[in-house]
Design brief:
globular; 10-stranded antiparallel β-barrel; mainly beta; single chain; 163 residues
Length: 163
């Protein structure tokens, strides 16, 4: 005689919602960007500093320079909260002149991660940012946009660990 559990008991023990629950991410998903990084693009020198994760947050600064003069600064806050992993970014011209209104910022929410990447969705736009760990002490920031119904990602910056 075979014993069968009633379907209702199975659903009580393992709710259907947990089958489709999406991870909120963690600081571990993004910690590979911690450190001092550099790259060049279109004649600009780009230098990035990312703190180690602590107390469910990381901070980052990117400085872009052309001919040794700053052209743009970006300040990042990566935080874990009740909604999951989130990124907020503010942009500044030289002289720390904000490009966004003082209470505005670019906002990204966590979508997914794997061993070598973390993926975020920009609020209000069909834009995704993917942080990709690369071999040889490198990581890339990739920009994704939908093309013919599929997300297509292209390298925006590929950073090397600064020595």
């Amino acid at each position: 005689m075979k014993h069968k559990l009633p379907l209702s008991i199975i659903f009580l023990a393992f709710p259907l919602s947990s089958l489709f629950a999406q991870s909120k991410g963690s600081m571990t998903d993004i910690q590979f960007i911690a450190g001092h990084w550099e790259t060049t693009k279109n004649g600009q020198q780009i230098e990035a500093f990312w703190t180690e994760p602590a107390s469910a947050n990381m901070a980052g600064v990117i400085r872009m320079m052309d001919d040794e003069a700053p052209t743009l600064y970006e300040i990042f806050a990566i935080e874990m909260n009740d909604n999951g992993l989130e990124i907020r970014v503010k942009h500044f011209k030289p002289g720390l002149i904000g490009l966004e209104e003082k209470d505005k910022f670019d906002y990204y929410t966590f979508i997914e991660s794997g061993d070598l990447y973390a993926l975020f969705q920009k609020e209000g736009e069909d834009v995704r940012i993917r942080y990709d760990k690369r071999p040889g002490q490198k990581f890339a920031i990739m920009i994704g946009q939908p093309v013919d119904g599929k997300w297509q990602y292209n390298d925006f910056w590929v950073f090397s660990k600064k020595k």
